[in-house]
Structures are given as structure tokens and as C-alpha cells.
Amino acid sequence: MDLRLIQEHLAEAEGHLAQIELYIDRQIEIVYELRRDGHPTDLAVKALATLRAVHATYIAHCNLIRKELADWQT
Where are the domains of the chain? Predict the structure, then answer.
């Protein structure tokens, strides 16, 4: 894999990471609104947990690409 391709992969992965962070923020708002209005939150909390798990996976993926990029540049 060449440097340009690694950089493109990292940019794409970081974009996915930013997007999932927006989803997490919105899901937190949803959980808050449900609780505030006295609605059940079980499914919303589970969805939030899933988003956080995906976030952790995206972070790990970005870190792997960053390591590959660092290794390639040295």
C-alpha cells in the first residue's frame, strides 16, 4: 500500500469516527428526552451502548491506520 492510499484510508476512517460521535451525541439527547418525559429508555440506552461499541471499534481502526502510516514513513 502506498502513502497516498494510507492517508486516504485514514481520512475516511476519521470521517466515520466523527460521524459516529455525532450519532452518540444525538442518542444521549434522545435518552435524556425520554427520561425527562417519563418514557421507557431501555432500547435507547441499548442503542447508545451499541454506538459506543462501534465508536471504540472506529478508534481502534484509526489507531491501526495511524500506526501503519507511521511505520511507512519511518
Answer: 3-73
Which amino acid would we find at residue 60? Answer: A
Digit-coded pLDDT (tens) for 21-55: 999 999 999 999 999 999 999 999 999 999 999 99
Cα–chain center distance at 69: 20
Residue 52's contacts (CB-CB under 8 Å, 6 or more residues apart) are: 24
Buried b (16+ CB within 10 A) or exposed e, 41-71: beebeebbeebeeebeebeebbeebeeebee
Q: Which 3-state string (H, E, C) describes 19-32?
A: HHHHHHHHHHHHHH
pTM: 0.88
Shortest CA distance to 17 belongs to which of 73, 59, 63? 59
